[in-house]
Amino acid sequence: MTSFQDVPADLLIQILAKGLQDNDAITAPQWAEFAKTGTHRERPPVQGDWWYVRSAAVLRKVALKGPIGANHMAQLFGGPKDRGVKPNRAVAGSRKVSRCILQQLTAAGYIINAHNTAGNVTLGKILTPSGQSILDEMAHSVRDEAEAKYPGLARY
Predict the structure, then answer these.
(1) % helix / strand / coil in the chain, to the nearest 5?
(2) pLDDT per residue over 16-61, tens digit each?
(3) How far apart are CA 53 and CA 49, in angstroms?
């Protein structure tokens, strides 16, 4: 069976975003139409489905780097801030977007909170078996397209 790590991220995120649109727990809030994705951006996203694309990317990042929290997730989606004549500096992305997407993925049952052994400290979000299965199903469905686009992938 193909794992989500076996296919390129660009192909996986596209098809996973389409799959997440069918889930009722994941919907773009009303403010998402006007919100920027970070202070390093000048304008809001122009794609109509950017919320689902970001949700798919966040789900993949949780699978790769979990346990992970909203602050670290926002840092992963940051970028260079243009400060005029001064040198650019790295800034984090929007924590509100990261937090809302993590909450929606938790409500959908794809991720859960990871606790320490005593159960009193939250370490971050980790993938659930249903989250793992949707990632692997989408990766398996895009495997043929990935092998056509990247011929060296067929060896694995």
Answers:
(1) 50, 15, 35
(2) 999 999 999 999 999 999 999 999 999 999 998 999 999 999 999 9
(3) 6
**Span 4-155: which CATH code?**
1.10.10.10
Q: What is the pTM of this model?
A: 0.91
Distance, C-alpha 39 to centroid of its chain: 19
| pLDDT tens, position by position, 65-123 | 989 999 999 999 999 999 999 999 999 999 999 999 999 999 999 999 988 778 788 88
Backbone φ and ψ for 67, nearest 5 degrees, come out as -75, 135
CA separation, residue 140 to residues 16, 68, 97, 106, 133 (Å): 11, 25, 29, 23, 10
Q: Where are the domains of the chain?
A: 4-155
**Spatial distance between the Cα atoms of 86 and 101, rounded to a whole number of angstroms:** 33
3-state secondary structure 29-80: CHHHHCCCCECCCCCCCCCCCHHHHHHHHHHHHHHHHCCECHHHHHHHCCEE
